[in-house]
Amino acid sequence: MTLPFHLGFFTSFAPDEWNGPLSSGGGAFADGRFYIDIARDLERACFDFILFEDSLAIPDAFGGSTDEYLREALVAPKHDPVPLSVAVGANTTRIGVAATMSTTYYAPFTLARVSSTVDSLLGGRFGWNMVTTSGDAVAANFGSKPLPPHDERYDRADEFVAAASALWNSWEPDAVILDHESGVYADPSKVHPVDFKGRWHQTKGPLNTVRSPQGRPVFIQAGASDRGRQFAADHAEVVVATARGIEGMKAYRTDIRRRMELAGRDPDSCKVLFLVTPIVGRTDEEAQAAYTAFMQTHRFQIDVLARLSAYTGHDLSVYDLDEPLPVIETEGSAGLLARLAQWGTGKTLRQCVIEMGFASDCIDLVGTAETIADTMVAAIDEIGGDGFLFGAPGFQPSRAHIAGLTEALVPALQRRGVVRTSYEFPTFRENLLAF
Ligand SMILES: Cc1cc2nc3c(=O)[nH]c(=O)nc-3n(C[C@H](O)[C@H](O)[C@H](O)COP(=O)(O)O)c2cc1C
């Protein structure tokens, strides 16, 4: 008997498949309606949440300029995910909505306040993708703040979470009393300054807004490095994992659960979701043909390298696609780069790019809805839990892709009794912990 598992969807607030057959035709992503539409579709299919990715600059890491990113609408243009979360939340009622925000470039007070506000506006459905941020282009946008070294970014992030959490707790749950008779709105004895004085972050508090329905957003994290995993084990309620293959997935989840136990946390209080990009076809052959054709395109191969250049801060345009990638040290996303390069195997960069497939996917899910559903169930049986985060091909969601997920794949999973058919609770965290 397979345990029920969770589903999330991952995208950025960027152009959809603007020149595809079912696209918006260009430009229309910017009003957010495309994302509202897909969130409503995902809600009908009972996804736990939609997660909006973010970055804070137009990268110039690939080829030393922003040209390729702009030409292909890679990484840019994109909007801020927080106002999008509000728009999506106002047009849905049950699905969780999560935004990416940086622990390196945002202030704890700003992040705590905006998250509390959005969680209140959404009735307790907001989540935060806790990223430490990498890339020199971002550092340049924040003037006086050069990018700290990789592990120090996580040390700062630990302190950031402590400061933000103190602010979220600065209002006790019953601080608002709304006593019409005595004319008292909030009980001052239940609203506390936090006087947080850390090495990198200082904030006096309290927050100047009320406690939100969830108290704080659901914490989501995707750090792949050793330090990143430790950060996840210390704080996260959803871990997005990018391990390769069933054994890698199982080992990743076991590692996170072991680290949580050592940190004194209940391992079941965090769900490890595996990144996948299902390609659903009417037949297995049709889906496979679409997948293969996509991998062979110049756009796809450049996409992968340009994005990785941005994540790692290392210009991957200078390497021959038909030679192995030399060993590179990076302060950026080291885990992701090692996954791409397959150092020591002698594979060419092009082979590695194709094998890496959809960025950081854990397993390939290409076929009919029935084939993919069986593969997912078998994977979860082997791994022990907890679910999947679906991405879009080439990071560009399309209505056709979403329809394949919500009209074919999820119903196939629901028929197998392994995903929810209705939301049990009003808040994101409660639904996440429901099973
Ligand atoms: C599914 C997924 C989503 C991510 N989303 C973002 C994001 O929106 N913004 C960002 O700056 N980094 C994002 N990252 C990068 C991670 O936060 C992290 O830096 C990366 O996985 C490398 O881990 P490490 O920093 O521990 O080496 C994402 C990673 C994954 C796998």
Automatic annotation (TrEMBL):
Gene3D superfamilies assigned to the protein according to its UniProt record, in alphabetical order: Luciferase-like domain
Molecular functions (GO terms): monooxygenase activity; oxidoreductase activity, acting on paired donors, with incorporation or reduction of molecular oxygen
Keywords carried by this UniProt record: Flavoprotein, FMN, Monooxygenase, Oxidoreductase
TM segment ranges: none
Domain Luciferase-like, chain residue ranges per copy: 10-385
KW Calcium (keyword) present: no
Taxonomic superkingdom: Bacteria
NCBIfam families attached to this UniProt entry: FMN_nitrolo
Family: Belongs to the NtaA/SnaA/DszA monooxygenase family.
PANTHER family (alphabetical): ALKANESULFONATE MONOOXYGENASE-RELATED, C2H2 FINGER DOMAIN TRANSCRIPTION FACTOR (EUROFUNG)-RELATED
Protein name: LLM class flavin-dependent oxidoreductase
Protein species of origin: Subtercola vilae
